[in-house]
Amino acid sequence: MTGFPRYAIYYTPPADTALSAFGADLLGYDAWTGRDRPCPDDVVNDVPDWAELTADARKYGFHATLKAPFSLAETRSERELCDACAGFAAAPRTVPMIRPVVDAISGFVAVIPGEVSPALQDFAAECVRAFEPFRAAMTAEDRARRKPELLSPQQRAHLDRWGYPYVMDDFRFHMTLTCRLSDERRRPILSMLQARYAALGITSLAIDRIALFCQPTPRSRFSILASWRIADR
């Protein structure tokens, strides 16, 4: 199995924003502090098994994947990875802007773009390529856990090339709020989360930063080591 610690390059909103609080409250965990936080009482009252429905997402914290979790290559260090993140963020580029909405994606409920953003797709692909030299080679066990037999030929190619199947043309930006739900369960939960999100009044979101997350041990949750704002062109 993959060695630890594991690292990931994610987008996550700044700690002092309404969107960050929205995600951390619903997941019951704040990746900025590495601490639990109570889920809203009204959500737990409406959905008594809310903690169970958010257990998987809680492990990773509120985020959108840019470079999926990986172990460091033997010749690389955490300090070098931090320096690479800083260098990547300092290079001027067009900062993607999206209209964020709460909706279903592959059975999950998540914050997703209201429309496809070519700039965001390009940005995510840049992240995959830029940090690939830091990723340790995938083990046979890790590959098997991805169930390659259920992936498309292109996704299997991505898995073998980049260690993760949902990259490049298969990338879909999402900030997960629940586990995969049946249609019957998802409908009322989606409506409830959409109403809570609408109250925030967020109509646009700049994907203007990257954050380095770390999972020290298999039983640990991911937490944020550092974040960097992207230099806008």
Summarize the structure.
The chain has 9 helices and 11 strands. It is α+β, with helices and mostly antiparallel strands.
Task: Please tell me about this protein's structure.
The chain has 233 residues and is α+β, with helices and mostly antiparallel strands. It is 36% helix and 21% strand. The chain contains nine helices and eleven strands. The strands form four sheets. The chain has a four-stranded antiparallel sheet, covered by helices on one side. The chain has a three-stranded antiparallel sheet with strand order 6-7-8, with helices on one face. The chain has a two-stranded antiparallel sheet with strand order 2-3. The longest helix is centred in the last third of the chain and has 16 residues, at 183-198.
The total of beta strands comes to: 11
Number of helical elements:
9
Return residue spans where pLDDT drops below 50 for at least 5 consecutive residues. none
Report the radius of gyration as a whole number of Å: 17 Å
CATH class, please? Alpha Beta
CATH fold-level assignment: Cyclic Phosphodiesterase, Chain: A
Overall shape: globular
Beta-strand proportion: 15-25%
Number of structural domains? 1
Main beta sheet: 4 strands, antiparallel
The chain-level structural class is: alpha+beta
Percent range of helical residues = 25-40%
InterPro entries: DUF1045
Pfam families: DUF1045 (PF06299)
Protein name: DUF1045 domain-containing protein
